[in-house]
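#struct-pred
JK: can someone run the complex with flavin-adenine dinucleotide? inputs below
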Amino acid sequence: MRADYVIIGAGSAGCVLANRLTEDPAVKVLLIEAGGRDWSPYIHVPAGFMKMLDHPTLTWGYHAEPDPGTAGRAILYPRGRVLGGSSSINGLIYVRGQPEDFDHWAQLGNRGWAWDDILPYFKKAENWEGGETEVRGRGGPLSTSKMDRPPLCAAVIEAGREIGLEYREDVNDLPPGAGDSIGWCQQTRGGRRRASTARTYLRPALRRPNLQVVVKAQVNRIVFDGRRAVAVEYERSGTVERADAEREVILSAGAVNSPHILQLSGIGAPEHLSRVGIPVHHALPGVGQNLQDHYIARISYPVTGMPTVNERSRGIALCSEIMRYLVTGKGMLTYSASLAAASVKVLEESATPDVQCSIAPGSFKDGQIGELDEFPGITAGAWQMRPLSRGYVEAKSNDPRAAPRRSRNMSAPKFCPGLIWRATRNSWIMRGRRVRPSITRPAPARWAVTRRLSSTISCASTASNGCGSSTPR
Ligand SMILES: Cc1cc2nc3c(=O)[nH]c(=O)nc-3n(C[C@H](O)[C@H](O)[C@H](O)COP(=O)(O)OP(=O)(O)OC[C@H]3O[C@@H](n4cnc5c(N)ncnc54)[C@H](O)[C@@H]3O)c2cc1C
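RT: done, structure tokens with the ligand placed:
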């Protein structure tokens, strides 16, 4: 096979690139994806995300290395393996981030990543159901929607206001210097369905004759002519094939697999490559280093007197939620991983909020993935927005089928389980002395949060090897 551009990985980035590049009919693009087509209903019904975190075919089934910082647990490390990549399995939360963080990236030398540079692309990408404003876009491919607003989360937002957090109606319209705030999350959802990049960018481009998509094809390595990438070698149905690139090979296989593919192609730290039997093509020790990730520490409480996802996902209540979803496109089946979120400053030295606390009107059984408690529950999670720990991705062998070793390095001195812990304690427990009574106060006697169920550090939601955005342009 031959094309002008060969793109490795049809995830968030790969689908956007395939769409934008094939806008020019003279350009031929080949998009190669290891996973299959996005036919599973779990992908398209938003609440299905919780059934996909450890899905045997829709994810890569990765776990992080056991780490003293996580009490030796090998924590699940979900990555999408399907058209749309992780945008087909993620928590659907549409959050752009703080303008100051983008400006900081630009100051570090990443020209073109300052907030003023990025904003036009955010606007160009999106189709915001709230309509166009100075900061929001309308008419772009990516549908972004307001969250359904259940009363339990409304009460938490009210409690946040009571303890002095500023309420923001649009959490993606953050003026520079914004302080502690709380508001409703927004979603990458169009109508009833998840707005993955497969649906929003790839599908419309599939009509173009200059785009070819190959699925269930795992790229083993990039082929070089000297220092120029000229082709890729991939395996499909047990046969190794080659695709030549006239112009460029584009590597968009995600934060874990992109460095892994580079290492399998002989690009990386010579000592590591030699150790695992890969001939060194180009010495580049930074490949696979500097992995940054967001851990979330979750705390769950039982709830009385208010509906939560737990009991509504069973029996007659579930039937009525399904009817509601089909008829109105609202209700529990449209929920994301969290519905409301507070941004708070925990470290004295931070100039802007450094921890996000998210709220979901449900709770998982302790230590179980995707299994909800039998009784009504609520979960608050906190994550460090600018993680300080640095992990790595490392090929374990020269076999492309062997999963790479991944560590988030939770025990590194700069990792802050301490910070997360302080955040959870400060924001939701110690402040929670106020939050919890105030959660119960706005809706007196109708419901109450009674005792703490569990607190766990659980799977990360995003990972990157440095600066990067999960938002397509
Ligand atoms: C569980 C979870 C929840 C998340 N929640 C949110 C959220 O709520 N909001 C948010 O903004 N972000 C969220 N994220 C993060 C966001 O989804 C990712 O940052 C983003 O999708 C990464 O895009 P990407 O293009 O870099 O990689 P991906 O979207 O992961 O795409 C990589 C693609 O490459 C393919 N691939 C990999 N190796 C090969 C190979 N050898 N050959 C061929 N193909 C290959 C993969 O199968 C995949 O399709 C979440 C992520 C996860 C995993």
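RT: quick notes.
Residues 315-328 form the longest helix (14 residues).
The longest strand covers residues 239-251.
JK: thanks, will look after standup
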